[in-house]
Amino acid sequence: MGRTAKSTAKTTAKKSTSSSKKAASSRSQKTVVPKAAKQQRDTGTGELKKRAQRIVKVLAKEYPDSKCALDYRNAYELLMATILSAQCTDVRVNMVTPVLFEKYPTPGDLADAEMGELESIIKSTGFFRQKAKSLVACCQDIVERFGGELPKTMDELSTLAGVGRKTANVILGNVFGVPGIVVDTHVKRLSNRLGLTQQSDPNKIEKDLMEMIPEKEWTLFSLRLIDHGRKVCDARKPQCIECALRKDCPFPEG
């Protein structure tokens, strides 16, 4: 091999060794950076959890008597009322359900309802044709699959026609005493406004809140946040000056 060739070979070898060292150094650095980032995230999560728990305490003080705004006497009635409450006020639903439950006092009665008659009863709640189908299909599921009795678990309730996690949590928390976070429009809006989540999907919001809020508070936290959204933190004109959560709100001036 000539001198030129040997020189070229040595240069190439040096470059290869240098590149290997740089790659190894880069890999070594990459193992350190994520740890630092993780520590920062953990610290941020810890502070957020503390703030969330302060919010829980303030809401408990402000709304000690919060309860479900829908009128009901049993799990069946609350389930039907919750389905009707989609895109409708609780006040309007409460005006309709006494007539509905007088006509159809059990899931079996509603499962066999004549569609036109049912639609006329619930018409004022809006989207009445689809709601009528959902009510009947749900009651048929209850009768055919659960012997006319509402199931008492999330997994079973969420298999009923027209029932998702939000509706199932309403039933579990208010009737069966199983804690659950109900992500309705108020909870979705306020949990984002308060910086407790950055999600828009209700299931992801529920998951975020479950990680920060003590389990025993899940049901009442939802009810109290709903009350706060209705009475103080209005979507169009929030009453920030009067808000008891102002100190822990990222938007204390509206």
Can you offer a commentary on this structure?
It is a single chain. Helix 2 packs across helix 3, helix 5 packs across helix 6 and helix 9 packs across helix 11. The chain is an all-alpha fold. The longest helix is centred in the first third of the chain and has 60 residues. It starts with a helix and ends in a 23-residue tail after the last helix. The N terminus is likely disordered. 65% of the residues lie in helices and 0% in strands. It is elongated, with a radius of gyration of 28 Å. The chain has 11 helices and no strands.
The profile of the biggest β sheet is: none
Number of strands: 0
* DSSP helical segment count: 11
Order of helical and strand elements: HHHHHHHHHHH
Secondary structure elements and their pairing?
Layout: H1 3-62, H2 75-84, H3 90-103, H4 107-111, H5 115-122, H6 128-146, H7 154-157, H8 165-174, H9 185-193, H10 202-212, H11 218-231
What keyword list fits this structure?
11 helices; mainly alpha; elongated; 254 residues; 0% strand
